[in-house]
Amino acid sequence: MSFDFWAVLAEWPLLLKGVAWTLGLTAIATVLGMAVGVACAWARAWGPGWLKWIVGTYVELIRNTPFIVQLFFIFFGLPAAGVKLTPEAASIIAMVLNLGAYATEIVRAGIEATPRGQIEAAVSLALNRAQVFLRVVLPPAMKKVWPAMVSQIIIVMLGSAVCSQISVEDLSYAANLIQSRNFRAFEAFIVATLVYLGLSIAVRRLFDWAGPRFFFGR
Q1: pLDDT band (50, 70, 90) for residue 216
Q2: Which residue among 68, 76, 111, 153 is least packed, with the fewest CB closer than 10 Å?
Q3: Please, what sign has the CA dihedral across residues 169, 171, 176, 180?
């Protein structure tokens, strides 16, 4: 049996487009998903009882159902209720909701690890609740949980491969299209696997570098 990886690599524009879509979806989902996670973590830790219940229901629903089911519900199920979305929009919403639910629990763990005396000291300095949370509680909390957060972002990026099932032209879509053209399935998916591995390493290193500089201080 002979292998012909060049037959796959010759389709580099298609692979590059797939990488661009994968990174684009991940970037948008990361920004919005982390925002959702921080807001929901605040709600679960400091919010009123009714809001804790709503956020808790959302978190448990997302964390205990498969991502592909969530994606299919948004893309195929919502049109029955009159909400029709493009494949790209449905993918972004599904990824944001998924990351947001996991990020909620990750950030909440960091918030609850904040010493009570630190919060009381901030209150004694006449800081309001928003200032205490944003300036005193959130930065050290994010620092504590940053490795777990980065791992979850990478999991969501890798999970985005199923978005090809609704015709999003990401990396897995490109690999499948290439193997359908030249029947080099082994080579196509080996290349896709190596590219996903490279993306995961690159994204982790990027966030490990960016975290101390932009998210929770040096």
Answers
A1: low
A2: 76
A3: positive
Give a three-class secondary structure readout of the chain.
CCCCCHHHHCCHHHHHHHHHHHHHHHHHHHHHHHHHHHHHHHHHHHCCHHHHHHHHHHHHHHHCCCHHHHHHHHHHHHHHHCCCCCHHHHHHHHHHHHHHHHHHHHHHHHHHCCCHHHHHHHHHCCCCHHHHHHHHHHHHHHHHHHHHHHHHHHHHHHHHHHHHHHCCCCHHHHHHHHHHHHCCHHHHHHHHHHHHHHHHHHHHHHHHHHHHHHHCCC
Placement of tokens 């359908």 in the chain: 180
Phi and psi at 72, nearest 5°, equal -65, -35
**20-65 pLDDT, tens digit each:** 999 999 999 999 999 999 999 999 988 899 999 999 999 999 999 9
Which residues lie closer than 8 Å to 158 by C-beta, 6 or more apart?
196, 200
